[in-house]
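pinging the channel bc i need a second pair of eyes. not urgent but kinda urgent?? the chain im working w is below, pasted from the shared doc
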Amino acid sequence: MKSILWLTIALTICQVASAADRSPSELRTEVLDAESALYRAVFDDCDADALAKLVAPELEFFHDKGGQVAKSGAEFVQAIRGSGANRRGGKEVRTRRELVAGSVAVHRMGHYGALAAGSHRFFHRPVGQAEVPTEHARFANLWRLDGDRWLLARVFSYEHMPSSTPPRAP
């Protein structure tokens, strides 16, 4: 029994250490890949099932306009599922998200994971019409490394400004 306990502890330590053991370029690549998958699931595909694989159960999402808009991964996934249904039903305008080139910084967060912070722009895409720029904002996403999977644990979406307002320098 003690052998199993020690083996479990050793495996847990190895998993936790894996976030800290990645090179800066490896960390950046992995986190930016997770970011791309996140925004593809939310905006491009409105795929709640794909999103569910990317979010931690303990996810919290904070937005400067709405405060805490999700208190769990399940709540966030359900909101995107509803939004996707509304988009497909013509009740909600599709939105495109565009990362501001060169704006993303990825920071190691010890053994926990990484923080990705940057700026992005949003566009409404009415069916049969040209897309319209709506706003730009900043984000800070905290990613937790769980084994070999990156899970979104915290989201801070802030400083939303109309597209007509020039972005503030970082």
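so Strands lie at 55-63, 67-70, 94-99, 105-109, 113-125, 132-146, 149-162. and The helical segments are 2-21, 24-44, 48-52, 73-88. — does that match what u expected or am i reading it wrong
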